[in-house]
Design goal:
Layout: E1 6-10, E2 15-19, E3 32-36, E4 39-44, E5 53-57, E6 66-69, E7 74-75, E8 79-84, H1 90-99, H2 116-121, E9 123-127, H3 129-168, H4 172-178, H5 188-191, E10 198-201, E11 204-207, E12 211-214, E13 240-243, E14 255-256, E15 261-263, H6 265-268, E16 281-285, E17 289-295, E18 299-301, E19 305-308, H7 316-325, H8 327-332, H9 344-347, E20 351-354, H10 357-397, E21 405-406, E22 412-413
Parallel strand pairs: 3-7, 13-18, 14-17
Antiparallel strand pairs: 1-9, 2-8, 3-4, 5-6, 5-8, 10-11, 12-20, 13-15, 16-17, 16-19, 21-22
């Protein structure tokens, strides 16, 4: 048999499984990461698992989720910890378990559950250890690049949020001018756009000349609908993007590049708001309230959203940061007996501070430039993730042999 042979193997032959233990006292200044079924949940001063531990969600809605810790960590009792046996590669086995979709092996009619017995008995194709290591190097390179792109996006978003807070929440340029100081990091022309005093409003002291107006008077807030899901005429052929808040639950950046489902022309006609243009802001209005994203393709929305298309006094991008800043106030106006929901009727009266048009015009190009970079990074990250997910099963099965060369753009040669 070839040294590169792929064998049908039970997981118990390559992995040792043990249940986690009750979580210790957690403190963010401690050294050891703490993992539960849903991943990293904090830090602790002690560990119960060695470096290169695989963490598997054992119970609940995250049953079968898979996480990895390169350093010693603590695994809680709602998760299972797995370590590689013999010469098997732990990073490869982590990718393998993610590929296996362990949630499909769950049991329990009420609370989903996966146990060690089930995990031990799973059979799957597994290559020899030296091939495992080669595969994990390739796949890890994808993950490292994706992580870098998303860390960059976190920084870009934080810069834009900080600018919004400085100008429209803390009013730093106004305070500086009141003290006869040049606003920090701002040229003279931009500084001249800000007033040098405050006046009272229903929101307290605000820059002189800026107005407090119900948000529904300065933006259009619209909702959506769900065509009959049992009528295939509304869904086939699938031509128009249609989003539910589920599409936003796992996004790494506040951008929506696509949707899980699409509508037919007939289905689209059942939604009075039609297709939102690119650059609209969507906010989940229930279960839960507050997911936010800027749309990057035309799409229709279901009834679980409030959407703000372009064309209002305040742009959707400005409103992204406004909603983030005012989310407590937005949630405070929600109600409902089954689940909390913020209706369009309750959203529209929320008072919004509206700066002068000149200040808004100065803010928009700076944040648009940052956000454009963020969108391109997220597109590249999703493209890399897609390639990674196509490669992995082929590498595991032996259908694709290494080496596989990956260029700087994430394009793959040798498939």
């Amino acid at each position: 048999m070839s040294s590169d042979a792929v064998r049908l193997t039970r997981l118990e032959q390559v992995l040792s499984f043990t249940n986690g233990r009750t979580s210790p006292e957690r403190n963010e200044s401690d050294s050891y990461p703490v993992f539960g079924s849903n991943g990293l949940i904090g830090q602790a001063g002690e560990s119960n698992s060695e470096p290169n531990t695989i963490v598997i969600g054992r119970v609940g809605s995250y049953c079968g989720s898979v996480h990895f810790s390169k350093i010693a960590c603590w695994v809680t009792d709602n998760a299972i910890r797995a370590t590689a046996k013999n010469d098997n590669d732990p990073a490869f086995l982590f990718y393998l378990l993610k590929h296996l979709n362990l949630n499909s092996w769950r049991s329990g009619s009420g609370q989903p559950l996966i146990n060690q017995t089930t995990l031990n008995a799973i059979e799957t194709l597994i290559p020899e250890p030296h091939v495992q290591r080669e595969i994990s190097v390739v796949i890890s390179a994808f993950d490292d690049r994706i992580t870098l792109l998303r860390e960059t996006n976190t920084t870009l978003e934080a810069i834009a949020q900080a600018l919004f807070k400085s100008w429209f929440v803390d009013f730093d340029p106004v305070h500086a001018k009141m003290q006869d100081r040049a606003p920090e990091g701002m040229n003279e022309a931009t500084a001249a756009l800000f007033p040098d005093s405050f006046e009272e409003s229903e929101l307290g002291a605000v820059p002189k000349g800026w107005r407090v107006i119900p948000v529904g008077n300065v933006v259009e807030a619209i909702g959506g609908a769900t065509p009959d899901t049992k009528n295939p005429e509304y869904w086939e052929p699938a031509e128009h993007h249609w989003t539910t808040p589920k599409d936003l639950s796992g996004i790494a950046s506040p951008v929506l590049l696509g949707t899980e489902r699409k509508l037919s022309d007939a289905g689209l006609k059942k939604i009075s708001s039609g297709l939102l243009p690119v650059g609209s802001l969507v906010m989940s209005s229930r279960a839960p309230i507050g997911y936010l994203a800027m749309t990057q393709v035309p799409m229709a929305i279901n009834q679980g959203y409030i959407a703000i298309p372009p064309g209002g006094k305040l742009s959707p991008l400005y409103m992204l940061f406004w909603c983030q800043t005012n989310m407590d106030s937005i949630k405070g106006r929600a109600n409902g007996s089954t689940f909390m929901e913020i209706s369009k009727k309750a959203f529209r009266p929320i008072p919004a501070l509206v700066p002068s048009q000149a200040v808004l015009d100065a803010f928009e190009p700076v944040t648009t430039q940052l956000f454009t970079r963020l969108v391109e990074n997220e597109k590249q990250a999703q493209s890399l993730a897609s390639i990674r997910d196509i490669l992995l099963p082929r590498l595991i099965s032996g259908q694709l042999r290494l080496p596989v060369k990956i260029n700087q753009s994430g394009e793959c040669n040798g498939v």
